[in-house]
Write a structure and sequence with these properties.
By secondary structure, the protein is an alpha/beta fold. The protein folds into 2 domains: about 5-15 and about 85-210, HAD superfamily/HAD-like (Rossmann fold), CATH 3.40.50.1000; about 20-80, DNA polymerase, domain 1, CATH 1.10.150. It is about 45% helix and about 15% strand. The longest helix has 19 residues, at about 65-80. It is globular, with a radius of gyration of 17 Å.
Length: about 210
């Protein structure tokens, strides 16, 4: 019998990357010669793709490619200095791995996710990692992952409405990581809500062992 599959979002679910997002965008604006933005605006860039985040901080449309290139470079320079896992995330993954195939479906770029997994020594934990693509939504990326793995049972875990929407659109139960970067209105759309990493581990172990 196939193991069940657990699809995780990355930023805001397993990885606490908010400070990284703030610093990489602030450095990017400086390098592009554009006005700085307050932290509360920069925080809104954590979760959306680079293309979705650009208008949030006032990137002109004709500088989109430059923004994406410079921001990625800034992010990669900071991953090892600033990024961190949420407390309990490593323990959660260790507890789940014997019982389920673990996967990531993220709006992060390929280079960013690969550097994160190498830095946190998680390269062998995930069966599949799906990163952002400018022509695909997270819902579409999750659909591709499901088509590749063809799980008998699966669940989507994330902290934002896009994660929850992706799960439901693909016929999966969606679990909200309510310790992440979303809000109560977003989390209310999920089938279940975990307010701590320990609660999430309990929910997912129960799902994996059913």
């Amino acid at each position: 019998m196939k193991k069940p599959v657990i699809f995780f979002d990355w930023d805001g679910t397993l990885c606490d990357s908010m400070q990284l997002c703030i610093e990489e965008n602030r450095n990017t604006l400086r390098l592009l010669g554009l006005p700085d933005q307050p932290d509360d605006v920069l925080r809104r860039c954590n979760g959306p793709t680079f293309e979705e985040a650009a208008p949030i901080i006032g990137i002109p449309a004709d500088r989109m490619d430059e923004y994406c290139r410079v921001r990625l470079s800034c992010a990669l320079d900071l991953v090892e200095k600033v990024n961190r896992l949420f407390p309990g995330a490593r323990e959660l993954l260790t507890a789940l791995k014997p019982h389920a195939d673990l996967c990531i479906v993220s709006n992060g770029t390929e280079a960013y996710l690969k550097k994160c997994l190498k830095h946190f020594q998680l390269e062998d934990v995930f069966r599949l990692v799906v990163w952002s693509h400018p022509e695909r939504t997270k819902t579409q990326n999750l659909a591709l992952a499901i088509a590749e793995l063809q799980p008998e049972r699966a669940v989507m875990v994330g902290d934002r409405s896009g994660d929850i929407r992706a799960g439901k659109a693909n016929g999966l139960p969606a679990i909200a990581a309510a310790f992440g970067y979303g809000n109560a209105e977003e989390w209310a759309k999920a089938d279940l809500c975990a307010h701590t990493m320990a609660e999430l581990q309990s929910i997912l172990l129960k799902f994996a062992k059913e």
